[in-house]
């Protein structure tokens, strides 16, 4: 099984001690985002966890402990964007994040560090020219430290409109997207970086940009050195290309407080949940109340043997 760590929050940046404690214990509890009384128990045994996919803007807090992942396959989705602290209110300086990106790449290999430049939005200050300049700066810096850049264009969900209303974000027309895609593509080719989109319906293949998979079975197969048997994740949006995974994060727990974020939009709730976090708890936030129904999630490897057959190993804990 593939474990997503996490679309919902930045576990590497803020909860890495908790994560490594869960590896030692061999399991994690995950609350249903829509029903706190429903809790899943997820096995973290390396025999059934085929890959961890880490999503982060700053993995520095877990860098010194990567050796604890020696029994696991993993890679990082590493977001690096040009926004200032008026947008990304709790991110370290760009030069320091770039340094961390390079260090991580040197440790685990550039194929395992995917650069994310998303979401892309434009307004009076963060206009197209601003993005062109910064995309090339980043591409220059990261050209020897990554193979791929994932881009997406902002979706203004109802729950994030309150936080972004004052930004006067412009509606992106297809013409705008085509212009950005063409410019980014030419820059990426210059620095030998492949671009893919994340959850975008628009066709950018004319610029050499294909639709991507952030939870990517082909990359995981490459890292593991074997074929996989895994289907598209039908719990994600139709335009999302990701394959099935289990996410162990929780919404409204990320302290980066980026204004555009759809997963962490209530800053008061973020602060309250962060205060309840216990590094030794099986839950990311707080502890069990005692009235929950805990369901053991069936886990099985998605790796195929040399003959292309599924490995039948299953573990329940």
From TrEMBL:
Pfam families documented for this protein: DUF1848
InterPro entries assigned: DUF1848 (IPR014998)
Protein's UniProt name: DUF1848 domain-containing protein
Organism: Caldisalinibacter kiritimatiensis
Lineage: Bacteria, Bacillati, Bacillota, Tissierellia, Tissierellales
């Amino acid at each position: 099984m593939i474990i997503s760590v996490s679309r919902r929050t930045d576990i590497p940046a803020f909860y890495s001690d908790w994560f490594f404690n869960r590896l030692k214990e061999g399991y994690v509890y995950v609350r249903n985002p829509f029903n706190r009384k429903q809790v899943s128990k997820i096995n973290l045994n390396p025999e059934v966890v085929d890959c961890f996919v880490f999503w982060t803007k700053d993995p520095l807090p877990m860098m010194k402990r990567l050796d604890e992942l020696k029994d696991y396959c993993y890679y990082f989705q590493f977001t690096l964007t040009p926004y200032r602290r008026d947008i990304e209110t709790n991110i370290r300086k760009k030069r320091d994040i770039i340094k961390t990106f390079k260090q991580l790449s040197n440790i685990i290999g550039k194929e395992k560090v995917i650069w994310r430049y998303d979401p892309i939005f434009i307004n009076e200050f963060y206009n197209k020219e601003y993005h062109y300049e910064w995309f090339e700066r980043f591409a220059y810096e990261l050209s020897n430290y990554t193979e791929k850049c994932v881009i997406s264009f902002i979706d203004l969900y109802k729950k994030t409109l309150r936080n972004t209303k004052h930004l006067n974000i412009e509606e992106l027309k297809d013409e705008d997207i085509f212009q950005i895609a063409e410019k980014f593509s030419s820059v990426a080719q210059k620095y030998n970086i492949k671009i893919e989109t994340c959850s975008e319906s628009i066709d950018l293949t004319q610029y050499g940009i294909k639709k991507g998979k952030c939870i990517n079975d082909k990359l995981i197969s490459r890292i593991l050195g074997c074929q996989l048997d895994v289907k598209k994740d039908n719990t994600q949006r139709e335009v999302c290309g990701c394959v099935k995974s289990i996410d162990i994060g929780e919404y409204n727990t990320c302290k980066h407080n980026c204004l555009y974020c759809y997963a962490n939009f209530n800053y008061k709730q973020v602060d309250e949940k962060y205060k309840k976090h216990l590094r030794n708890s099986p839950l990311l936030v707080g502890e069990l109340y005692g009235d929950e129904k805990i369901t053991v999630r069936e886990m099985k490897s998605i790796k195929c043997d040399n003959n292309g057959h599924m490995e039948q190993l299953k573990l329940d804990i």
